[in-house]
Amino acid sequence: MVRIKLKSEKIPFILLTNGGGITEKEKAIELSKILDFNLSEDQVILSHSPMRSLVPTYQNSQILVLGGAGDNCRKVAESYGFNRVVIPNDIVAWDQSIWPFTKLSQEDLKLIKKIDFSKEPIKAIMMFHDSRDWGRDLQITLDVLRSKDGYVGKLENNDVANLTNIPLYFSNPDIIWSNDFPISRYAQGSFRICLDFLAEVITGHKLKYKLFGKPEPVTYLYAAEKLRKFAMKFTDENVPNRRIYAVGDNPASDIAGANRAGWTSILVRTGVFSGKVNDPINPANHVVDNILHAVEWIFSKEEGI
Amino acid sequence: MVRIKLKSEKIPFILLTNGGGITEKEKAIELSKILDFNLSEDQVILSHSPMRSLVPTYQNSQILVLGGAGDNCRKVAESYGFNRVVIPNDIVAWDQSIWPFTKLSQEDLKLIKKIDFSKEPIKAIMMFHDSRDWGRDLQITLDVLRSKDGYVGKLENNDVANLTNIPLYFSNPDIIWSNDFPISRYAQGSFRICLDFLAEVITGHKLKYKLFGKPEPVTYLYAAEKLRKFAMKFTDENVPNRRIYAVGDNPASDIAGANRAGWTSILVRTGVFSGKVNDPINPANHVVDNILHAVEWIFSKEEGI
Fold first, then answer.
1. ipTM of the complex model
2. CATH code of the domain in which A11 resides
3. Do A166 and A247 sit in the same domain of this protein?
């Protein structure tokens, strides 16, 4: 019903998630199958999509991409235009003693890039998705952050790192996420918490980093621009000032970000939020039981204009 | 030379390490080969050896043992007399959604115990060695610590954990350890730091736990008793009040523990310590270049008596 209404009335919409680890195109195909509805890759914004904005800076610099299965996130980063992407297993393959507990399988070794990290420095670290090996990734991330000019295994300033030398970016701020398990699971933000505290214990310095994903404003600016471009496919008029409605189940990410961006926020009760009235910390403009009621409410608002 | 002197003069000695993950017998065989010297398992004390003292309490209770490769640490715990030992992969095999990022291999599955953790509660958690999968182990440890009476997947007090319900034991307090890599690697103590901070962020409560290994007094008491028993094999007289000498390279563990235990501490320059004079925070009774000089110094002291 939602599907038919959206399709028939040609209401431009996009899907904005804190998930990722695959390309927007792959995600669009995955979601199209689930929804039985042809979704374009232009309609899918993943947590790391706005990190495309880093391409001009790091296009030809060696960057370390963290997270995801196999080398999926390397492929995502390359699809954005980063030309020299390495993953933690490349570093383990270069020198196993950096984290002797990670045993590379035959399959892992097939995905490896052979690089001498003592000669080719890492210029930035970008976490694209959940770490599959927290110990390895905590160790290697701090090794790079503490390194002299990104040369792995060399220490900056005689073991006193300023931790600002190598920029660090996270795609997803969430501390927890939900799946079939009855209690929420630890997300990329929990990894960041561990890194943050460990960095301080080891170096005495605070970690510095930049966040992407919801509820970061950079992500909403990126999404608004994508939505505007997508909308222009279906209309001749330029629509820069149309109202944007955001429907989400997570007050701390979906609603907080939408409110901050000046969008009209609608909170549904089908996920993280299950309260009766509204979220006390990040209240939405409107609360409904499900996505269908959200769409109906949006129609009622727009038809009245 | 050291070997010949120790052997010929029958000076009773033991080896006390913060390492582990295998049985004392396996470690003795491993070291005997390296040293080309027949070491008895009674002469080897690993970080988790004093955890034998927990056997009377948990002999027939289900305990979760963390760390080590495969199911090695389960075997170690069973060799101590714990009869119902489970490992994190048993829990992942029971419900993959608890940590979907850990993919169990065919080899992993062979080592699995099939248990319904919603029906058989975990009564204590013991970390025997370095985690091979920090994300999995942080998540599962906090799930158990926050659980109602050790039933995995159920929360104590409506998501407010007191974190004292299920006892937690660590075998090794070290934050870092040294291997071939030019900078020290993160040890079990770093995992504990992550757990500690994550627990506080998630629950608002401080983690409570008990430490074994060097420099914990419990480990030195255990070692002294083992040394006394071992010494009695070679002499008819009971030797309870003989002086104990401790040789070590790590001021924060070896020397700190020895000093606290009232042993005579000797710091060598062949490892963690490389200072000229003495360690400022944990000064040893005597500082020498290497183990040979340490043994010669001990002989000079004992011959003078």
1. 0.92
2. 3.40.50.1000
3. no
How confident is the model at residue B1, as a pLDDT?
44
Per residue in B21-43, pLDDT tens? 999 999 999 999 998 888 999 99
CB A112 within 8 A of CB A140: no
Q: Could you tell me if A171 and A212 are in contact, meaning their C-beta atoms sit under 8 angstroms apart?
A: yes
The tokens for B18 are 């913060």
DSSP E strand stretches across chain A: 15-16, 44-45, 62-66, 84-86, 124-127, 147-148, 151-155, 168-170, 176-177, 185-186, 210-211, 245-248, 264-268, 286-288
Q: Look at the block and give the residue holding tokens 């040893």.
A: B284
Question: Does the beta-carbon distance from B134 to A130 stay under 8 Å?
Answer: no
Report the DSSP beta bridge partners of residue B210.
B169
Tell me the CA end-to-end span of chain B in Å, nearest whole number: 23
Which residues from A are below 8 Å from B98, CB to CB? Answer: 181, 185
Q: Do B139 and A100 touch (CB under 8 A)?
A: no
Contact of A240 with A228, CB cutoff 8 Å:
yes
pLDDT beyond 60 at A226: yes
For residue A240, is the peptide bond before it cis, meaning its omega torsion is within 30 degrees of 0?
no
Contacts of A68 in chain B (CB under 8 A): none
User: Is-contact A212 A14, C-beta < 8 A?
Assistant: no
Cβ of A135 within 8 Å of Cβ of B138? The answer is no
Task: Report the domain count for chain A.
Answer: 2
Q: How far is B222 from chain A (nearest CA, A)?
A: 29
- Please indicate, yes or no, whether residues A197 and A235 belong to a single structural domain of this protein: no
